[in-house]
Amino acid sequence: MDKQKIVKQTVKDRLLHALIEFAGKKDWSTLTATELIEKSGVARASFYRNFKSVEEIIEYGIQEMARCYHGGKTFSEEDFHSREVMLYKFTFYQKYADLILAFHRAKVSTTLLDVITDCEIEAFGDMPVHSISRYELYFFSGAFYNMMLCWLESGAKETPEAMADEFLRIVGSR
Question: pTM for the complete prediction?
Answer without folding.
Answer: 0.80
